[in-house]
């Protein structure tokens, strides 16, 4: 029998240990209630969400597929279990988005036809990828090819690659990325702007009346290898069904060596042409080569859903909401390859972006179970069709659950590497906001070093869903993994990132593995929780810095009733 004296001593020791634990529990720079809510964020719950969303049964969560719909229903169910208010259509968590899908069929052909020479046929997926943006099953092009450099028209930089040429009904040959620059006032220096994104180049060429586009791929300029392009384009290409903008009959990419062949047929050197295109001496010109293209596509009209929930704030007239977002879609199942099992063709998307969804659901859990309601609404949106060109978030930005002027901040999560305890964080774009001093202060509280964009030429700010909100004026950025983790140097983290891009990004090998360590996901969720709470309680409205490209959209939204 244990003596009463021993039991009292043991009890006192436990109390003392508990007190020590309480003293050592971080407050994250938050009031006690909010600090406790942040502390409740659980890495293992995030793991459970990722394990389910990345399971083979969800078949890669393709947009408008059964697996994608299951993912949306799963997320909606989690929101419902937390007691959040539906913020979608007709009192539901679902915001319906209408799409047109076009899958390029094997009968699609492209050939270069030199003036007075024989046609040079190209191999689908090996030499080129292409899709038909128009809602037609067949399209034919026989048109001249015009080299328009980087395909950019940017008045603020006194740059116009289309000056002096008419591409209407023709095919625009365009370099991916943008003119090289070290000057922060010229195409933002090393950091890629939206002008460098392939989406912009297609949009601009279509506005100019082009029938087709050939983008020249180069690993360093695109920031990913040809395999990523091929993986993305073997799947269905998707557009918003109600998008009135002009479309291309042929929107494609060609391998670097194919571009080299094309220029050699025209008596030009590829490397010299790329160098020239980065200078003000460049003038677009027509090549003595035509493109003959026959596009065969399987076209379907379908619907997919953004999943949107709200935790109402105390103030019913509040105009300072915070929006957390993460996309749930991925690439689905790759086309059948002889001798390859279906399970080996599933793009599970564990890191991209089941991790972001797990973080989003944990943030929802932390806010919903907090002992006091926030002063302003907190929105949670898991969006569709990110992999198809940020289309779900584009629709959300144009059809928000609250007026965009009432949303103080959007914090987005996309591909949070489950690599252990983070000591660094990326918040690319946060420096464009008046809120940045709070971001720096909060990072210091979390003992996180704000790291510069490891690959600024990749244009990450324009490649994730926060960009869709920024375009309509909402202050927005993504919270991303840095390269420094406890127990490792920064080089180790950079190598992990390179390995992911080379071997798993947009590949079936992006799968859930039991050895994944979701500590980083939980820590960055807590960091985002703290930032969100500070935004909810800011006394001054969060704004874009004067002169920022999104400032005008914000000012316009604030004038709306």
Please provide a written account of the structure.
This protein is α/β, with parallel strands linked by helices and 561 residues long. It has two domains: 28-99 and 301-559, Aminopeptidase, CATH 3.40.630; 102-299, Glucose Oxidase, domain 1. The chain is 32% helix and 21% strand. The chain contains 16 helices and 19 strands. It has helices at 4-24, 32-39, 43-53, 66-81, 198-207, 219-222, 226-233, 256-265, 270-277, 350-368, 391-398, 436-445, 466-471, 490-503, 519-536, 551-559, and strands at residues 85-86, 94-104, 109-114, 120-122, 128-131, 138-147, 153-154, 159-160, 171-175, 212-216, 237-240, 250-254, 285-311, 321-327, 378-383, 407-413, 424-426, 449-450, 476-481. The chain has a 17-stranded mixed beta sheet that branches. A two-stranded antiparallel sheet has the order 7-8. Helix 10 (350-368) packs across helix 15 (519-536) and helix 12 (436-445) packs across helix 15 (519-536). The longest helix is centred in the N-terminal third of the chain and has 21 residues, at 4-24. The protein is globular and about 80 Å long. It starts with a helix and ends with a helix. The relative contact order is 0.16. Residues 1-23 have low confidence and may be disordered.
Topology:
Elements: H1 4-24, H2 32-39, H3 43-53, H4 66-81, E1 85-86, E2 94-104, E3 109-114, E4 120-122, E5 128-131, E6 138-147, E7 153-154, E8 159-160, E9 171-175, H5 198-207, E10 212-216, H6 219-222, H7 226-233, E11 237-240, E12 250-254, H8 256-265, H9 270-277, E13 285-311, E14 321-327, H10 350-368, E15 378-383, H11 391-398, E16 407-413, E17 424-426, H12 436-445, E18 449-450, H13 466-471, E19 476-481, H14 490-503, H15 519-536, H16 551-559
Parallel strand pairs: 6-9, 9-10, 10-12, 14-15, 14-16, 16-19, 17-18
Antiparallel strand pairs: 1-13, 2-11, 2-13, 3-4, 3-13, 5-12, 6-13, 7-8, 13-15, 17-19
